[in-house]
Write a structure and sequence with these properties.
The complex is a heterodimer of chains A (about 120) and B (about 375). Chain A is mostly helical and about 120 residues long. Chain A is built from 3 helices and no strands. The radius of gyration of chain A is 25 Å and the shape is flat. The chains are: A mainly alpha (about 120), B mainly alpha (about 375).
Chain lengths: ~120, ~375
């Protein structure tokens, strides 16, 4: 089957998520209670704002991820042609990984990989 | 309507009727030709899409419900309990009863929640599941879409689910959800790398990203046997990091029940909660089937060199059974992980990924490419 069939699977997921709650809305009972719509916080009324600041560590790991993920995308095409190109490809990837490893080592020594 | 498709069936099935179990194109090609002959190409496409759509919806629901049941039985087995055993023989209809119950529950809107993002999140999680399922080869000729970048496509699509998780957590207006989503984001994003690099190791060996060709290349031996030690290391890394990627224990920081209630889907109720729950199990199925396809030969039977009799017996088992068997073997391993290991802290989790798996993976790729260069693989 051709690649345009991907649209089918997109629609399939959308139909699945779109229609089932409609059915549920028809058959499910409804009741009103002012406390019911509160977000859960151990059963007591919520305290303060919810969208609070979070640890900057998450941001650091997101940036590290970005570097290595772009690297993964770059290496995939290389992996496909590795067999045909031979020695040249191997030397190139050694150099590439060496530079990348230096980057990882730098982050490691800077204690960027330690969660605090 | 013309009925010459029956004749084409007879000619296609020179042997017994069950031959299509070994090559599904024997079933699909005559049907496609018959449809093309009897109605216009437009309606052919429409009919085929409806049939494929219904089959995939049923497959999705059955696999999801079965995995929930299997998980509870495995958990019960390890904790020396009986598990669900009331509804139907051995309780096999328990999850269907649960689903019906969830269908009849009210969907509660959360006060001050970002309702647009709150409603979009389940769409993203489920659509991503369906799109990943489309590219998996289930058996010989049973393959919805055969991309030439198959494995890369599945990797790209399935990593989109982190967006759904983050949206769900952020929009819920609940502290538990927000913390769960943040942890989950950091975790999925980190282990994504290991999955990609472990799969690159196999792509080097196969020289292609098309899943059907990868399976075909394993006719003479599965990649886990062909690739010496680097392939085995890659397999182990893949199983560990895919367990983390789908937020399952021992890496279930995102929904650590004792700390965060239910993590990012705390505020979802009724059937919308069921979507997240189902998506989690289908994600497990997807990562297990990628592992089966890339490392354990997909639907290829197990062969030993020159043992003709043994190989014939193995060939007699249909490819679909092989595929399902391998996939569920890996799912079983992942389930055992959850119920036997204690949960990791987030710093241990990130240390494991960045200080152990990632450097090992980089070295592993170099070793594998050296092996391929020298032709030392089988």
């Amino acid at each position: 089957m051709s690649n345009e069939w991907l649209v089918l699977f997109f629609i399939l997921g959308a139909i699945f998520v779109g229609l089932v709650p409609v059915f549920s809305g028809i058959v499910a009972p409804k009741s009103f209670n002012p406390q019911k719509n509160d977000p859960y916080e151990c059963g007591v009324p919520t305290e303060g704002i919810t969208w609070l600041q979070f640890n900057v560590g998450y941001y650091l790991f997101a940036i590290l991820f970005l570097i290595f993920d772009v690297e993964t995308v770059l290496v995939f095409p290389w992996a496909v042609v590795m067999k045909e190109v031979g020695m040249t490809a191997f030397v190139e990837i050694v150099i590439f990984f060496f530079i990348l490893g230096l980057g990882l080592l730098y982050a490691w020594k800077k204690h960027a990989l330690i969660w605090e | 309507m013309r009925f010459d498709f029956i004749a084409s069936y007879v000619s296609a099935f020179t042997g017994p009727w069950w031959k299509f179990l070994y090559d599904f194109s024997l079933l699909t090609t005559p049907v496609h030709e018959w449809l093309n002959g009897s109605v216009s190409p437009f309606w052919t496409t429409v009919i085929e899409m409806v049939v494929v759509g219904v089959v995939f919806l049923l497959f999705y629901a059955v696999v999801g419900l079965f995995l929930v049941y299997a998980e509870r039985k495995v958990c019960a087995f390890i904790q020396n309990r009986l598990g669900p055993n009331r509804i139907g023989p051995y309780g096999i209809f328990q999850t269907i009863a649960d689903l019906v119950k969830l269908l009849f529950k009210e969907i509660i809107p959360i006060k001050n929640a970002d309702s647009l993002l709150f409603n979009i999140a389940p769409y993203i999680v489920i659509i991503v599941n369906f799109m990943a399922l489309a590219a998996i080869p289930y058996a010989n000729g049973l393959h919805a879409i055969d991309f030439n970048i198959g494995i890369f496509y599945i990797l790209a699509v399935s990593s989109m689910s982190v967006v759904g998780v983050l949206l769900a957590g952020w929009s819920s207006n609940s502290k538990y959800s927000l913390i769960g989503a943040m942890r989950s984001g950091a975790q999925i994003v980190s282990y994504e790398l290991s999955i990609g690099l472990a799969l690159i190791t196999i792509v080097i060996l196969s020289g292609t990203m098309q899943l059907s060709e990868i399976v075909e290349a394993q006719r003479t031996g599965w990649f886990i046997f062909k690739g010496h030690i680097p392939a085995i290391i890659a397999f182990i890394i893949y199983v560990i990091s895919s367990t983390a990627e789908i937020n399952r224990g021992p890496f279930d920081m995102a929904e650590a029940e004792s700390e965060l209630t239910a993590g990012y889907h705390t505020e979802y109720s009724g059937i919308k909660f069921a979507f997240f729950y189902l998506a989690e199990y289908i994600n497990m199925f997807i990562v297990a089937s990628i592992a089966a396809t890339m490392f354990l030969g997909g639907w290829m039977p197990f062969h030993i060199g020159n043992l003709e009799g043994f190989n014939m017996v193995m060939d007699f088992i249909p490819p679909f059974i092989w595929y399902i068997g391998k996939t569920f073997f890996i799912i079983w391993i992942i389930m055992l992980f959850k119920w036997t290991f204690p949960r990791l802290r987030i710093d241990q989790l990130l240390t494991l990924e960045w200080k152990y798996l990632l450097p090992i993976n980089l070295v592993n790729i170099l070793v594998m490419s050296f092996l391929v260069l020298k032709g030392w693989h089988f």
